[in-house]
Specification:
heterodimer; A: about 350 residues; mainly alpha; two-stranded antiparallel sheet; B: about 425 residues; alpha/beta; Rossmann fold; 8-stranded mixed sheet; 5-stranded parallel sheet; 13 strands
């Protein structure tokens, strides 16, 4: 169904490069768009808020996927750039009186440039050493600069609380789960479309070449340093988008929201979803967000019979995340996205084995 | 196949049974059992479960049972949000028992919009101002008042009376204070502004703040950073684990300062972890310590033994008692709201605001709440460690001493 019938060939370049090749795929994607667009009409606000967290996780992990999965630059400090995006957006709205969209664009640019600063060492180092520099980004940005200086701008400090109604897009206030959901869904769609297309251009191919073998890439004439920095910039901008989406969901921002644990969390997302796959970001984000909620559903009915369950065994939930990563690394190193591909292949070829 | 059917049957039964219990009131509780504040969070969760059992055993809410939904969120703000929304939309609870300052302050605008009363373990002063947080309630004195009271108690009892400071006083020296707390953690940083304001009021010199993580095991560099200032007094604004580490390091490096500790750093574990270094440490306790003589304490111990027999008595702490205080305050408000026939969010809020000198026992100072002020009390009991045990030093009444400031200036931060 993803394949054209035998003997039917593309007539134009446009057709051969089309994302959605057959009417089946087009119908499928149409249904997906319809589903995403109408979800708040029939789902409860709880489901919408879980979806919001999943979308935020997706946007957070997308930059990591681009940097780690496509350009081969491992990062453990991505929350720092999300924080820069969130803080610049919040400060733009709160202190400089900018409209939210403009503040968000500024936040994205600031996050991108800040990311380039910490990408600079990648010109000289890679592997474990680079992991150390990205972790440094985390501690320098969040634990030092934002905590000690930025948070203290104006008033009692340590966090910013935005007055209700200050976040508007063209006069429409963005408040409540449903509006945040549409904003997050739209931005997620735009970002994924942008990254998917970017990866098919010269830039994307250069990144993939660097990931696969940087020396070979350089020998072929790819300016390795420039493209690495470009990857850091793009990843930073995507982190900025995630930060900008975070602001209207709470009207509140504190350094506590962007700790190292969140950087590790989004790396876990792409490990579970599949490194080097955009599908992987979506699957991974859903997995880690929804599994935690499903575990609650599993535990709560049982707690009626054994009330101490919630107090004594909920640490299993934490362990489950670590276990999931270990099991994925052992048994499905290519992540959920690969499993999805296998599934599709099975149905495409059915009833034949290959 | 047969086994599968049995499982499905059992599961379906499990889902259907709760529905069969008529007349139950749902109560949500957000706790940290696995995150950085779990050092105090686990004992609280046990206490909450036991207290709810006690309330149900003694007639519930005017005959209605309470059904408790207790979730761990690992101190992660995103999960606190989804869990809160689960409480609101899925479990449909009447009130929420909350946890940390970060998530409680983050959720505060949402809570006001949803009109769902939220009684938190965080006592951040911002939560006690009904103008900005109309649906937030606390069951103990707020952090800012705590800090002011502890500083006042040290100033009165130690600086003015202790012979160690006679020379310094005679020379006209100002007392020097240093503050150890985790800068990025809202709980730890919440009272700092009030504390600095109070230091100025009492004529303290304030040294450079020292950032100590909540999970710190080694704080020597911070202690050395503080030592150059030669402080007489150190404020500790973290939870027990890192406070104990700091006090031990201060002892080892001969910082030479007295210590005052906020309530979440001041419990039985502090003495256990810091040992002789904890001697003389002063701090705030919002309830009586576990097993101490106080009204209703016999029930706390009885239920701890009955419901959680596997947890040894010697590891139970004041946190259990705090869990009880929180549950009993919430259920008292529920009882009042139910009697008025308005067991809804706004009804519950009104019920809270009728509290006039109410106390559940357990050493909780009488709680008075009004529609314009959600601070529970102005009387703050200060304790001191003496021979490995806690002894009361004095009750500081902030309102009696600074009535003008208490009414207006100190309100809401």
């Amino acid at each position: 169904m993803n394949y054209l019938p035998s003997g039917v060939y593309h007539q134009t370049y446009a057709a051969s490069h089309a994302w959605w090749q057959t009417s089946f795929v087009r119908a499928k994607m149409g249904l997906l768009v319809l589903f995403v667009a109408t979800l708040p009409l029939y789902a409860s606000l709880y489901v919408v808020s879980v979806a919001n967290i999943a979308l935020y996780t997706m946007l957070s992990a997308l930059g990591v996927q681009l940097l780690t999965g496509y350009c081969g630059q491992i990062t453990l400090g991505h929350a720092a750039f999300i924080a820069v995006g969130a803080y610049v957006t919040a400060m733009g709205v709160l202190f400089w009186g900018l409209p939210y969209p403009l503040a968000a664009v500024l936040g994205c640019l600031a996050a991108g440039l800040w990311s380039v600063v910490f990408g600079l060492p990648s010109a000289r180092i890679k592997g474990f050493y680079q992991i150390m520099t990205t972790m440094a980004a985390q501690f320098i940005t969040v634990d030092f600069i934002i905590t000690h200086y930025v948070s203290r701008v104006g008033g009692r400090g340590h966090y910013f609380s935005l007055p209700p109604g200050t976040i508007t897009i063209g006069g429409w206030p963005v408040d409540g789960e449903v509006k945040v959901y549409y904003l997050a869904a739209a931005l997620t769609f735009v970002c994924f479309a942008a990254v998917a297309n970017l990866l098919r251009t010269k830039v994307g191919r250069a990144w993939i070449a660097i990931r696969d073998n940087d020396i070979a890439a350089e020998a072929m004439g790819v300016n390795v340093v420039a493209y690495k920095l470009l990857a850091f910039f793009a990843a930073g901008v995507l982190a900025g988008v995630a930060g900008a989406v975070w602001i209207p969901s709470l009207y509140f921002v504190s350094p506590e929201h962007f700790q190292l644990s969140w950087s590790l969390w989004v790396v876990g997302v792409i490990l579970i979803g599949g490194v080097g796959s955009l599908h992987g970001v979506v699957f991974g984000a859903f997995f880690v967000t929804v599994i935690l909620e499903l575990l609650k559903f599993a535990v709560i009915p049982l707690a009626d019979f054994y009330p101490a369950l919630t107090e004594r065994f909920l640490y299993l939930k934490e362990a489950a995340f670590g276990l999931a990563i270990v099991l994925f690394l052992l048994y499905e190193p290519r992540g959920l996205a690969y499993r999805w591909q296998q599934l599709k292949n099975y149905f495409n070829l059915w009833p034949f084995a290959y | 196949m047969k086994r599968l059917a049995l499982w499905i049957l059992a599961f379906g039964f499990g889902l259907a049974l709760p529905a069969a219990w008529a007349q139950e009131i749902k109560l949500g509780s957000l706790n940290d059992l696995t995150g950085p504040t779990s050092d105090v969070g686990k004992d609280i969760a046990l206490g909450i479960r036991e207290a709810v059992q006690y309330v149900n055993d003694t007639g519930g809410i005017n005959g209605k049972r309470i059904r408790l939904y207790l979730y761990d969120y690992g101190y992660r703000v995103p999960e606190a949000i989804t869990t809160y929304k689960r409480f609101r939309d899925f479990d449909k609870v009447v009130g929420v028992l909350g946890w940390g300052t970060g998530d409680t302050e983050a959720l505060s605008p949402t809570v006001s919009k949803d009109r769902l009363p939220y009684l938190s373990h965080s006592f951040a002063a911002k939560l006690t101002d009904p103008k900005t947080a109309p649906y937030n309630f606390v069951y103990g004195t707020d952090y800012s008042s705590n800090a002011r009271a502890a500083m006042t108690a040290w100033f009165d009892e130690m600086w003015m009376k202790d012979p160690r400071f006679r020379d310094a006083r005679a020379k006209g020296e100002k007392p020097r204070v240093i503050m150890f707390y985790a800068f990025p953690v809202p709980y730890a940083s919440a009272p700092i502004r009030a504390l600095k304001n109070h230091a100025a009021l009492l004529g303290f010199e304030v040294g450079p703040d020292q950032d100590v993580s909540l999970v710190a095991l080694d704080t020597k560099s911070q202690v050395l950073g503080a030592k150059a200032f030669r402080p007489h007094l150190a404020w500790h604004g973290n939870t027990t684990m890192s406070v104990a580490a700091t006090i031990k390091d201060a002892h080892a490096l001969a910082l030479g300062a007295d210590h005052i500790v906020n309530n979440w750093g001041y419990d039985e574990n502090l003495v256990r972890l810091a040992g002789p270094a904890a001697e003389g440490v002063m701090g705030i306790a919002v309830t009586a310590f576990y097993g101490e003589k106080a009204p209703l304490m016999d029930k706390v111990v009885e239920y701890a033994k009955k419901i959680n027999p596997g947890v040894p008595q010697e590891v139970r702490m004041i946190r259990t008692v705090q869990g009880w205080a929180q549950v009993l305050m919430m259920t008292e408000a529920m009882r009042r709201a139910d009697k008025a026939g308005k067991l809804t969010g706004p009804g519950l809020r009104e019920a809270f605001e009728t509290f006039q000198g109410w106390t559940p026992g357990l050493g909780v100072p009488p709680i008075t709440l009004t529609a314009t002020d959600h601070r529970t009390s102005s009387v703050i009991p200060i304790y001191r460690v003496r021979g490995g045990k806690f002894e009361p030093v004095k009750n500081v009444d902030l309102k009696a001493r600074w009535s003008k400031e208490w009414e207006s200036e100190w309100f809401g931060y």
